[in-house]
Every structure is written in structure tokens, then in C-alpha cells.
Design goal:
Blueprint (H helix, E strand, L loop, with lengths): L21 H8 L4 E3 L4 E5 L1 H6 L9 E2 L6 H45 L2 E6 L4 E4 L1 H6 L21 H13 L3 E7 L3 E12 L2 E11 L1 H46 L5 H28 L9 H16 L2 E4 L9 H20 L5 E7 L5 E7 L14 H12 L3 E6 L5 E7 L9
Helix pairs in contact: 6-7, 8-9, 9-10
């Protein structure tokens, strides 16, 4: 072992020949040297070494390692302590990894047991994993993992799904769409961003069957329609007839009053006119409560008739732009007609509009019903809660898988649009 002391330095091997007088010889040859034996013990140390390490010349032979500086011994202690801490940390990480594996297995078992159709995509819209329900409904196999979603041939997957998934990943905002599956089944498709640390690294797509919910909604809507029809029929058959009889009595009174009673005749005439006007309004109300049967091919003529009756009843300009658009069935046609009817009623009663336009178009293969007016427009968001009419229109639009937009127009007035996307029928699972 050597020190930083300048001068020649050497370490002599142990042996019997150098055991006697070695201290003086070592001091002369190498003033800062230590003589060790074959077991690593310091048998002879030069006086310079004794002074450097503050060792007594009478001390017994010690191992060379015992002559190390104190700071080296402290470093060894710290390294040993760090090794112990790393071992403990490794054990904790292994325990957490085992816990995560167990939780992942439990979650996979739960998802597979519930038979939910779930598809996991990465940021590049490639398939990461899927549940057993997704494998069955989407016809997926192990070879599809890592494939772009656009390469998968399934009625559940189309260009609209790719665009929506990309938008969800880019904006980190979820999206929902109702999709028909055949004539009687419905699915709700939910797309949620999947992220780490606030950054979306993929998307999770879930298909949930809502056929029963849709059936209940239709049943509620049917019950409401039947009740409306009953009320409208009673108004027409009972109250409207009473008004008609009162109008005839008032007219008879006006005819039999003597000519000299001009004031009485004028009052009776005004009474007859008021009863006639009220009877006409009641007739219009009863006709509105009784649902108009609308077939898929007759929606455009029904909307044209709605515009004509609105002009005659409310004395406003109401136009229907001619259209050849056809909807998929009578149910959708009836709901679209009722939405247009409610939008026109709101424009005449609440928006103070005197010009209303009804349009029926087919953008991108879908169907769009639009009712616009030049009234006062909608109040700013948050000022008042949506009225019953707007909620009814939203409900009817959702029943046929559409999306309702109600907004104020930049130049004044209100625009209400119900949009039905062009989507292929999905196969029943």
C-alpha cells in the first residue's frame, strides 16, 4: 500500500529472508512502504507510515485493509446502506407489479364476463386489445391486434367512426352516437379518450345495446300521442260544438234585436265574432293534437300543408321549399313532422316572427329538417332553462337517432335543425 508521500514506493512480498531487520531496510529503500505477508497482514511498516497513519510501533500486525483512511470506510458503509435500500425498493416494486397484474386479470375477467363490446385503440387508431364481446360482434381475432381500425371489415366500423375517434383523441372530449342495428335493434356507441398524465394516448370504444330503452321511449311517446289524440277528439266533439252553438245563439240574438237597439246589436255582433274566432283557434288546436299520419313518402306534402295552414291561421309568411327527400320509415317521418310543427308553433307564438321557412334536405346521404324564422331569436345561454317545446323536439329527434340543433342566427331569428346521419344498418349480435 502506498501513500501520497513523494519518493520511491515499493511493496515487498512476505518471506522468512526479509523478516529480520526489514524495518530499517524498508525505511532506507522506500520510506513510505508497508511489508505484507501472504495473508494480507502488515508485518513491517516504515516509520514514515507509522507517522502518516498515527500508528504505534508496538501495535500488532494488522490487515492492510485496516490501514485505510476513515473516509474510505465511511464510503463502504454508505454503499452497503444504499444496497440495502435498493433491495427494499426492488421488493416493493415487485409487490406492486404483482398487484397490478392481479388487478389487470380481475378487470379482464370482469369485462369478459359481462360480455361488453369494448375496443381499445392507440393514438394511431390501431387495435391494442378487445373484449370477448368485441371479438364476437366485430369478428376480431388475435391477428387483428396492431392493425389499423380502417382495415377491419365490420358493419360496426366505418369512416365516420375513424373520424370521430380521431377527433376524440385530438380534443380529449368524449362522443356518443346512437346506431340502428336492423329494423328493431339499437346500439349506443361511446368513444372516450384514454390518457396518461392528462395526455390522450388512445381511445376506448364501447357499444351498448339500447334496444329496450328505445322500446320504452317509443311506448311513452305512443302513450302521449294517444292521450293527445283523446284530448283533441274531446275538444273537437264536445267543446268546439258548444262554441258553435253559442255562436249561432249570438247571431240569432243579433238578428232579432229591434233596429232601434243599435248598441245591443253591435254588442251581439262583436260577441258572435269573438266566439267564431275562438272556435277557429280551438279547431286549429284540436287538429294539432290529433297526430297526422305521415308515411315515409308523404313527409314533403305534409310539410307543405303545414306551411299553408300556418299562413292561413297566423297570417304570416310560411314557405316550404319543394323537396324530393324521402326518409327511411313512417316513424321517422312522423317525428320529423311533429318537430317541424313544434318549431313553427314556437316561431309564431314566442319569437314574434312573420317569416318562416321550412326545408327538407339530404346532406351527405342523410336527412336534415330545418325550420328558420326572422323572430327575436333564442335567449343567451344560461339566461333561462329550455322550454317544454325544445325538450320535446330533442326527445323526438333522439328517438329516431338524430341530433337537434337550436341556435340564434347571426342576422336575427332562430334556426332549428334535426339531422339524421346516413348510417348502414348494423347486424344483430
Amino acid at each position: 500500500m502506498t501513500t501520497d508521500n513523494p519518493g520511491p514506493t515499493a511493496v515487498a512480498p512476505a518471506g522468512a529472508a526479509c523478516a529480520i531487520g526489514a524495518s530499517a531496510a524498508v525505511e532506507q529503500i522506500a520510506p513510505a512502504s508497508v511489508l505484507i505477508d501472504d495473508r494480507g497482514n502488515a508485518v513491517t511498516r516504515a516509520p514514515t507510515v507509522e507517522r502518516l497513519f498515527q500508528q504505534s510501533g508496538e501495535a500488532p500486525a494488522r490487515r492492510v485493509a485496516d490501514l485505510a483512511r476513515p473516509e474510505l470506510r465511511d464510503s463502504n458503509s454508505r454503499i452497503k446502506s444504499l444496497n440495502e435500500e435498493l433491495a427494499a425498493l426492488k421488493a416493493q416494486l415487485e409487490h406492486r407489479a404483482r398487484s397490478l397484474n392481479v388487478a389487470n386479470d380481475d378487470l379482464s375477467s370482469l369485462i369478459d364476463a359481462t360480455d361488453i363490446v369494448v375496443l381499445f385503440l392507440d393514438r394511431d387508431l390501431r387495435v391494442r386489445r378487445f373484449t370477448a364481446g368485441a371479438a364476437r360482434c366485430l369478428a376480431l381475432g388475435n391477428d387483428d391486434v396492431g392493425q389499423p381500425i380502417g382495415n377491419i371489415a365490420s358493419p360496426f366500423i366505418d369512416a365516420a367512426l375513424e373520424q370521430e375517434a380521431r377527433r376524440v383523441i385530438d380534443t380529449a372530449k368524449p362522443a356518443e352516437t346512437e346506431l340502428p342495428a336492423g329494423e328493431r335493434r339499437w346500439y349506443l356507441r361511446r368513444i372516450r379518450p384514454h390518457g396518461v398524465g392528462g395526455r390522450a394516448i388512445g381511445a376506448v370504444i364501447v357499444w351498448v345495446e339500447i334496444t329496450q330503452i328505445k322500446s320504452l321511449q317509443r311506448e311513452v311517446s305512443s302513450i302521449a300521442a294517444v292521450e293527445q289524440q283523446r284530448i283533441g277528439q274531446e275538444l273537437h266533439d264536445d267543446i268546439q260544438q258548444e262554441f258553435a252553438g253559442l255562436g249561432l245563439l249570438a247571431q240569432t240574438l243579433c238578428d232579432i234585436l229591434p233596429a232601434r237597439a243599435e248598441a245591443a246589436r253591435e254588442l251581439a255582433a262583436r260577441l258572435a265574432q269573438g266566439i267564431a274566432a275562438a272556435n277557429e283557434r280551438l279547431h286549429t288546436l284540436a287538429r294539432g293534437l290529433v297526430p297526422v299520419p305521415v308515411e315515409a313518402a308523404s313527409l314533403a306534402p305534409a310539410l307543405a300543408e303545414l306551411a299553408r295552414s300556418t299562413r292561413e291561421t297566423w297570417r304570416v309568411s310560411c314557405l316550404f321549399e319543394p323537396s324530393q327527400v324521402r326518409v327511411r320509415d313512417a316513424d321517422a317521418a312522423t317525428h320529423l313532422y311533429r318537430i317541424a310543427q313544434e318549431a313553427v308553433r314556437n316561431a309564431t307564438r314566442h319569437a314574434n316572427a312573420d317569416r318562416i321557412t321550412i326545408r327538407l334536405a339530404a346532406p351527405d346521404g342523410g336527412v336534415m329538417l330545418e325550420v328558420s324564422d326572422n323572430g327575436i331569436g333564442l335567449p343567451p345561454p344560461g339566461r333561462i332553462r329550455p322550454g317544454v317545446g325544445l325538450r320535446l323536439m330533442e326527445h323526438r329527434c333522439s328517438l329516431i337517432g338524430g341530433r337537434l340543433v337550436a341556435e340564434s342566427q347571426p342576422g336575427g331569428g332562430t334556426r332549428v335543425a334535426c339531422m339524421l346521419p346516413a348510417q348502414p344498418d348494423l347486424p344483430a349480435p
